[in-house]
Amino acid sequence: MSEYKQAISLVDFQLAIKDSSDEQLHSILQKLQTSISRLEESNQLMEKLMNKEQREKVVSGSEDDEDEFNPITDEDIKIYTESIRENKFVIQNQKDRCKIIEEELNVRNLPVTKSFNDIKKSAFVDYPSFDTGIPISTDNDV
Fold first, then answer.
1. Which domain holds residue 88?
2. CA dihedral 49, 52, 54, 59 (to 10 degrees)
3. How far is 114 from 103, CA to CA, in rounded Å?
């Protein structure tokens, strides 16, 4: 049975990272930035699929038989819409956590190792990681 990790509040997160090593802070920041990129890419894919479905309703007969996502149902669109909404909430929460970590790194006079744009370019690279013991809330929780 897997252990369920409850997301901690931003205030508790800010307190918890004060005891973290510099390496742990950079690792957590990198994981959060990667998660944000992946969530944003998922949202873009779902929006693209919904837009394609709406275009096909207007112009009938333009379906691509080789498209693995056809046909998209109304239920799919409801799920995509809800998922996008939830992802946006999680993205904002994770961006807030990134900002807290960046502020802590500044307090320690340490640089932020990679910019967010650099992370977005390499979002699907598996970075080495270690368990920091601090929940970072990369799932669809708050």
1. 20-60+72-108
2. -160
3. 15
